[in-house]
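Homework help thread (please don't just give me the answer)

Our assignment gives two proteins as sequence + structure token strings and asks us to describe the second one. The first is just a warm-up. Here they are:
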Amino acid sequence: MRPQFIYLDLGNVIVWFDHAKAWQQMADLAGIDSVAVRAVATAGGLQESLERGHIDWPEFHSQFSSRTHTATDPEALAHAASDMFSLNIGMLPVIAGLERIGCPTGILSNTCAIHWEHLLAKHYSVLPGNFVQIVLSHLVALQKPEPGIYELAAERAGVRPDQIFFCDDIPAHVDAARAAGWDAEIFVSAVGLADALDRRGIKLGL
């Protein structure tokens, strides 16, 4: 069946990111070890709470400062935590091709406000571009691979679940999409995505 709507993940699909770079930049600013930064942000649950929209950046900064016994400028720490992205240039012709043939396309991503705002500030032509739906975890208080975020995204797409094709770099997110009735593939490369779309009748002419 030819998909009627395409959802793409953001991180490591449309843009590349490097968490290790962010941890190190935060560590350098705070004057502590990057292992400690990662432990507080991930094992401590702060990053997940931020991506779920349960806390905002000022609260993250306050808790991070308290747990690490550090004092940093909130804006400087936000920049250190966010300056880890680069555009996946290989995806540009894929996104342009989907737009050219009129195939509705959206973004479905686990992310937080400071990362999304940082990406918008970089003025990439594809963000927000012409994506017709942008479903971000921190705005909907749901995360992949929870079933609810796929249900919400399908509702916003306005098509049946089996008419959606999704591409994500994390296998668990792809498995959850399939469990929700979507067609889905693990992202390996832009060329691989174009081939997957071609097999489903979406010809991008690449």
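The one we have to describe:
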Amino acid sequence: MVKAVVFDFDMTLADSSYAITECTNRLAEEQGLRPVTREEVLKTIGMPIRDGWLFLWGRFEEDWLVRYRGFFVEQEYAGIRVFPGTVPLLKSLQKKGIKLAVASNRQNARPVVESQRLEGFFEYIIGIQDVENPKPAPDILYKSMELLKTDPEEIFYVGDTDLDMMTSVAAGVRGLGLSTGNFSREELQASGAWKTFEKIEDILTLF
């Protein structure tokens, strides 16, 4: 019996791709880096920000991160749009007594969840500052299960990337893949998804 559902954030609960692309390009212009496309940014969503910038530009500077978090992050949050099916799904799961959490490769996931006024749905919001290793290591799901007091067979992990599905496999958890990001249902299945869906609200069919 499933007692809890843990969600990734970016491109799972909300579309952050346009906002991240805009703010990344503002940083690029300021730092003399090449501009990037939304398609390129989509390939980095789900990675720790350091890995994403290494992918985009082949380099990473701590000063960029300080600048981004200090001046651009609020603009990023303002441009994020929660998927239409997210809130109805979360309300339905809450009514069924399902415990909910967020587990994201963002350094600190709470501010972005709060920026979309979703924090009230979740018992725990976990970022990579809370674990030793980021996804696809299983640490973030081990932490989720510890906090939620659940076993692997009692939990679903919902995400939109191959990293999310690989994390699920590594933790022994059933992964639900959403094709709302950069990966098709077939690619998510190949990465270990237990089931795949086109929209977040479709997972309600499992309850």
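TA reply:
I won't write it for you, but here's a hint about the kind of observation we're looking for: The CA atoms of residues 77 and 115 lie 6 Å apart.
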